[in-house]
Amino acid sequence: MSSFLKQLNSVRDIRTMTYSQLQELAGEIRREIISVVSRNGGHLAPNLGVVELTLAIHKVFNSPVDRIVWDVGHQSYVHKMITGRRDDFRTLRQFGGISGFPKPAESAHDAFGAGHSSTSISAALGLAAARDLKGESNAVVAVIGDGAMTGGMAFEALNHAGHLKKNMVVILNDNEMSIDHNVGAMSGYLARLRTDPMYTRGKEDLEQLLRKIPIGSALLRLGERLKDSLKYLVVPGMLFEELGFIYLGPVDGHDIKAMTTILQQAKSKKGPVLVHVLTKKGKGYRPAEKNPDKFHGVGAFYVATGEVLEKSDTPTYTEIFGATLMKLAHQDEKILAITAAMPSGTGLTKFSRAFPGRFFDVGIAEQHAVTLAAGLAAGGYHPVVAIYSTFLQRAYDQVLHDVCLQNLPVTFAIDRAGIVGNDGASHQGIFDLSFLRPIPNMVIMAPKDENELQHMLATAVYHQGPLALRYPRGSGTGCLMDKEQKILPIGKAEVIREGTDATLLAIGSMVHVAEEAAKILAARGVKVAVINARFVKPLDEKCILYYAEMSGKLFTLEENVLQGGFGSAVLELLSARGRGGLLTHQFGIPDTFVEHGSPELLLARYGLTVEQVVRVVGEKLAKKNYSGKLRIAPN
Q: N or C: lower Cβ tally within 10 Å for the chain?
């Protein structure tokens, strides 16, 4: 660790440093971020782009008295390092270490937790309103990316903030990207602000010019209209001005002195102020500058080359999904694809190139993505909405009201389902089975492996109603792939292994765990049946009831929260059919938010490994004889 970073004992030290010292500190911080992320993985390019911006913010504002809200939070590494977590930064995203996102429980400097986009302006406005209600005078700052500005919630907040006229500063970090390249009219507007020299004229100079226009009493109204027309032509940021914000910028986001000056100006203004900052994603690390999308979120890599470590030859579930959808789309022109700013993350990049007219990237606007899909379905097409489990949560009303209520043929391809690991609580995909299952008309299925994924996708796109297909992050199992896709019967389970001592009923990623546990139990003389449920809704009632009654002992396995999930559905079935007296046990995630850590460690923590399933099944069977009668344990 170099000198300035090592000597940084408090965020207050930033305010006493010269600009040349801050510039040296910026270089040291970049090197430290690259070093740690190369080992731990994380969001590299976004953080490299905001080093100088973060230093300027902390030179002007007094955190934690002044409240700084980071949108999404994957650009908060620098903020963490200079607010007392420098020595802990090496534990970034590791179990028991610091989070990769702002976390109020971790530090008072983290004013608001954020793992999802487009929330910062709303949260900052709430903090500003709370401040005023208490009669306090601290500053409130929201830092939001231009990609996040494609989310409707950001505009709802801008509209309300302009109406309330609260003192607050919104810093628009404009790097022309979110995860992939930005889309939409707002992106084009910001591009014009960045590049058109007409937009860079000073607003104050223009207003001085306008004041010199001679206006007599008879021409007053015409003169005011002329002024407004001229302002619309040449004043930068008029959209934000019309929303009630004072617009400042654009300013070079890597010039600490320039940013400090403009932020001090913003701090002194009354009412809401928007500061437009231009940054370069991946700044200071050539591989990230050249491929910012690749280094947005990255695993461990070689610093010298940027090559990712531990590459797998086994295709990921995401890749299999993308390839299968391409095949199906060639066969059926009614198949469309929709993503919310993540074509590469959801495996749709090739689809977007092969079928540009049938591909829709809506920006970070999950609600719009789902209702757009509903409209397309109502128009006679079959849209596939490819989305991460954690982000589908943001469009719940649209799924329920716009798709399922009308029973429209929309497929939800839910990527990153289950435990995803080091991104932590805001990104774990462990709730989708529970929040989708109560919705009428919805079919829910999950594949045991990548081969079954392709068959389920083929089943989904020909199903005439809403269907959710959830699959995990990362590489597949390496199983053999069938050359042709086949249509699976809706609601039909697969019996993988026969057994009379107990039944393991598993869904999705947990089928493999159940199979391996059954092999170990068999070696110990315990014969258990293994069923791949395939469908969470509708359940294969006949199959489940038969094996539950035959063995008298039923264990369900899912990588989802237990409340309202797959196991709950099975228990509801048993109760409704008068089979409540059977021995049952549910493996799944308890009532908690799962923190960051490796998937292997987290699965073990919540009892979802082969060894733990073997142990629990063995213990449960030992307490009950094979006639199904409970043994009374001595006191």
A: C
How is residue 540 written in tokens? 């294969």
Residues in the chain: 635
Alpha carbon distance 418, 581 (integer Å): 30
Report in angstroms the alpha-carbon separations of 285 from 48, 161, 251, 554, 558: 8, 37, 22, 54, 41
**Whole-angstrom distance, CA of residue 415 vs CA of residue 433:** 13
The two structure tokens encoding residue 604: 């073990």
DSSP 549: H
Per residue in 281-296, pLDDT tens?
999 999 999 888 888 8
In the chain, which stretches have pLDDT less than 50? 1, 178-179, 194-195, 197-202, 206, 215, 217-220, 222-224, 226-235, 626-635
Amino acid making up residue 151: G
Distance (Å, whole) CA 123 – CA 193:
26
**What secondary structure letter does DSSP report for 282?**
T
Structure tokens at 189: 């507007």
Which residues in 371-407 are b (16+ Cβ under 10 Å) and which e? bbbbebbeeebbbbbbbbbbbbbbbeebbbebbbeee
Tell me the C-alpha distance between 70 and 115, whole Å: 9
Strands (E), 24-115: 67-70
Q: Distance between CA 416 and CA 318 in Å, rounded?
A: 9
Q: Would you name the residues annotated as active-site residues?
A: 281, 366, 394
